[in-house]
Design a protein that fits this description.
The complex is a heterotrimer of chains A (160), B (312) and C (784).
Chain A (H helix, E strand, L loop, with lengths): L2 E7 L2 E7 L5 H8 L18 E4 L2 E4 L12 E3 L1 H4 L7 H8 L9 H14 L5 H7 L11 H15 L5
Helix pairs in contact in A: 3-6
Chain B lengths: L28 E3 L4 H11 L3 E4 L5 H6 L9 E4 L9 E4 L2 E5 L4 H6 L1 H6 L1 H8 L4 H6 L2 H7 L7 H6 L3 E6 L3 E5 L4 E3 L2 E2 L5 E9 L6 E7 L10 E10 L2 E10 L6 E2 L1 H7 L6 H14 L10 H20 L4
Chain C lengths: L3 H6 L15 E7 L5 E7 L9 E6 H7 L16 E2 L11 E2 L5 E7 L2 H8 L3 E6 L6 H4 L15 E9 L2 H7 L2 E12 L8 E7 L4 E6 L4 H11 L7 E5 L13 H13 L3 E4 L2 H7 L3 E12 L5 E11 L12 H8 L9 E9 L14 H18 L4 H8 L8 E2 L5 E2 L4 H12 L1 H13 L3 E13 L13 E6 L5 E4 L9 H13 L6 E3 L19 H24 L7 E4 L2 E4 L6 E3 H10 L8 H5 L6 E5 L3 H5 L7 E13 L6 E11 L6 H20 L31 E5 L16 H17 L9 E2 L3 H9 L5
The chains are: A alpha+beta (160), B alpha+beta (312), C alpha+beta (784).
Chain lengths: 160, 312, 784
Amino acid sequence: MKLPVKIEVNHHSYQLEVEPQETLLEVLKNRLKINSLHRGCEEGECGACTVLLDGKPVCSCLIPSPQADGREVLTLEGLNRDGELHPLLEAFIENYAIQCGYCTPGMVMTAYYLINHLTHFSEENIRKGMEGNLCRCTGYIQILKAIQAAKKYKDAGRWW
Amino acid sequence: MVNQVPSGIKTRLNEMKHLVGSRGIPPLEYHRPKELRAALTLMGELQDRCRLIAGGTDIIPAIRKGILSPSFGHMVDLSSIRELDYIKKEEDGIRIGAVTRLSDLEESEMIRKYVPILAEAVGRMGSMQIRNQGTVGGNLANASPAADTAPPLLALGARVLLKSAEGQRVVPLDQFFCGPGKTILVSGEILAEIQIPLPEDQGSFCFFKLGRRNAFTLSVISVATWVKVEKETFQGIRIALGAVAPTPMRGLKTEEYLLGQGVSEKTIDSGAKVITDEVQPISDVRASADYRKDMSYILTRRAIRSCLTPNK
Amino acid sequence: MITRERRILSGKGRFIDDLELPHMAHCVFIGSPYAHARIKRIDVSQAVKKPGVLTILTGEDLVKRAEPLPALSDFSGRPGWHWRAPRIYPLAVEKVRFHGEPVAAIIAETPSLALEAADWIEVEYDPLPPVLDAEEAMKKGAPLVYEEWGDNIQFHTVFNFGDVEKLFQEADRVLKVSWRENRVSGFPLEARGCLAMFDPMEETLNTWGSYQCPFRAQHYLSHVLRLPQTNVRVVASDIGGGFGNKINSWKYTVVGLAAILTGRPVKWHESTREFILTGPHQRDVRWEGEVAIKNDGHILGIKARFIQDLGVEISNRDYSAPSIIAACSSVPNAYRLQGLRVEAYGIVTSKSFYGAYRGFGKDKGAKFMERIMDLVSRECRLDPADLRLKNFIQPHEFPYKHISGLVYDSGNYPALMQEALRAAEVDSWRIKQEELRKKGQYIGIGMAFVVEPAGIAAPNARFSGLVQARVRITPDGLVEAYSDRTEIGQGAERTNTLVLSQILGAKTEEIVIKPVTSDVIGMGPISSRGAVYSVSALARAAKGVKAIIVKYASAFFKDDPANIRLEDGTIYSTKNPENRLTFKELADRFYFRPGPRGLPKEMQLNHETLLDVSSSWYSPNNAQNPTTTYTTFAASADLAVVEVDIETGITRILKYVHVHDAGKIISRETVDGQIYGGIVQGIGEALYEELVYNERGELSTDSYGDFLMPTALDAPNIVIQHLETPSPFTELGTKGMGESPIIGSKAVIISAVEDALSPFHVRISEAPATRERVRRWMRNAPER
């Protein structure tokens, strides 16, 4: 069964014919070739495939693609502009928050959301917000530092 | 939402001959009604040949893990039914549409104001990603014995509104579950709304969840209590537990024991011990029955005590 | 050049999932639902007709077209060793021996089509009882994993160092100790995978993917697929974590065979579940021992029996057999133990194979020793820090030849320990501990000290001690380096770049670390040997290139070689610093104008006309001391404070201090990152990570939902301090690091939990200390 859907991905509108058994992750990765999206456990237990759907972090592996019809998806590629890395990503690099890099795109989307929306930006709340993004390499500490540094960038106006 | 699936309990299905790691989702017929009436008609027609999906956080993993056979053929997606997505306050209480996302519940000012225990419990479920997708109706209808929305809703005395093409009925939540993954929903019937009577003026709530690590963990046991004390005696008490019985349960014997008793360390302790007679935990990969029984006692006692101390 | 991090964050990652070739097909493995069964019949005739299916391989195809998986270690013929290896193929032949063991591989146009065809494969199994406990497996009458063996013992040997009997006679006391670590593994977030393509032009099987050790994989693939090694090329893609779990390449051989047979490129990327089910498993050891001590706390000798649950084997799918030696020879840890006797058993069971995971084997002996330290401390009522200080190898004794044969290169253990005690403010925590006990709250202060041997070069380990590195200046003036040090997230590219920048004075943007391929000889980043072998070889090669540059510049600037400087991408002489050559200008002369007016005559006559040096490096430690299977010995002291809720068994970490000595540090933040990551992994191992098989032999913990790893809320804040005692053996004084954090953290958390429960006389002899176990230990405690 093929279903027509219209999805906006990283500020581009796509008209696609999807099969309902394809998850949003599969459509984004296999069809649209979104490089940053990483396939993890595909059962919602690791967060490697996290994207922002209408601005909120979700595991793209759990979303049947028809559910994305008429909605907006943002991945890491959508944060960068004109070959310039988003300040959040610069903060990740500056704080050595990337080791193997596999969890990073998902981690970044969650962090982007938290920096924009967490009302009480405490370490505890950041950690809680990140609980759905597993990282096996870093032990989370440099990631936390990166997020805190990025928040400072935002407060200083270096953000988009 | 998934009907009749024993969440967290693995079964070997006849069709699953091989271990393929992550099972694929096979071609399915997919329906995305925008109105409840259309959904109910569809469900009436398709009967057992369809599964409901809202957030997908239970059904997709269940298919991938090989727990749910995807041979049903049709998926009815309820997530577009806006008329089922609401949190509103009526005279007699709070009403929550079944398709309300868990994150909306957690962040809702109304929920935090009137029934904060629900917001607290939901905030401890899964991860932010899961909460942004998962729905309260899905969590209840999936009927895992460990469903975390259930104990607080049971402690709140919640009811559920079930609708079908033929009509509707309201049922107390503690009569909704009938076994692991089993509810009283009949074919063609849907859980449409959760109704929470506004909590009485006095009394306090407490929620505890115990998992195997600090975060993003399925409950080994969860406990929600409501306690109302007048003149140093228990005037009102509800104790609800998850993951220690075939369904989320109320500790009715324990409540009966404590009602009318004077409040003291001794009565709290002996009351909490009664819970160990009521729970029917199993041993599984997460915990042994013994530990669950032990924790029922420990956490019930703590929850009651916590309800009694001036609030956090 | 753009760094790897920047490239990945720009959406230009090259993980296996990103790789594509035209006409690419996909490989999906089908596994056994039984833990132990005879295969009566496999019928793929229906499945192979399904849409999109190219071919389906079974064990029989492997038997016809491939070699059995080679035994990568061979201890047979070693005196005192009972050893054997099975004859097995990557797909099951006649029998399945663990839950999920691959029985067929479907090659189809897409993974979905492969999965749809899967249910049409008919496999008739005759189930057999599995054997799931190592000690049960040793008993007569236990089900046999390999009938032809007659029992389930893959290896048995006794390690005897020093005169243990004499020491036991001299002892004031003999204590009994019991310690067990349950089954665990690393499971980096990206599972295994590769893309293989047979190029008919060059008759070469090319493969790209998550290969932690391309050179070793090349050898393995060439052997199994019956191709000369020169006709196999392995290229590491971006790798989403390794930790040793991607050294094995046995499933990858099937992908290679599929590419050869179909003539199409074939890609495989396994699911997380398959990684957990059929990946390398680790730990799962039991120690029963006796310790001979003096009343003043000196530890004289240890006798122990050690049983390692190998799953189906430790020899063919991975290079892990030397971990047995590592486990036993690491028992002395940081202490002057004079005698050690370990009777070691490796027992096969119906579980996935024994592989490599951060720590490998040397973690086990160290953890056992740290448990002994805590035991002795409590039994003799000695302060645990004083006890360790008393038994330490002292700074002036290095290089220290231990009874195990290992020659420890350098270190200052007392300084590490003292610094940790100070940074953790142990004294004030002890006071707090007393106060809280009165209130019925229990905190514990744990201590662990770990020596991390790095850079394995064992007699029976293939390619042991071999490494190659190549540095050249390209015609357009970039510094190009070839190394065996695969980037798996440990910062290889970054630290290699820094080394080259330091030696050649080159700008980091003008240094290119090429992706690691099998073209370069070396064992790869295992055993923390990157900073030992790979960096040393790279440094040597870079120094070689520098020497050529200096020679040229000395002639060019007409100055003494001693006055030539390489800085900021330029070369100049101190006599006239304004007159500089850039690397590009230098390269220009070498490549485009080498003739009579280009290079100095002397260099022409000596054939020194290329800016290209390939170098090897061998460990002087190993060369001078053949018994030392390891070259450098980093060390760390961990101190942790935990609070244990005795009613629920929940452990909360209140403070964590780690003081570390990894010799000369190239990049502190990179080292810190390795430490944070390793510590958090160890905490997971200490508190909840466990691979559990049910009574039917099915792996119950087959997903991240049940094999629990630490989340951001589970990781504590960690204080790190560094000390540097350079290694006298490596080219830059660096020591291998990255494993002591995972070893020390597991030991220290166990130590701290035990300390918290000490008023109840609870002794912990098993990890993980899950909440349920801690509660059970409390309820069963002698003193309640």
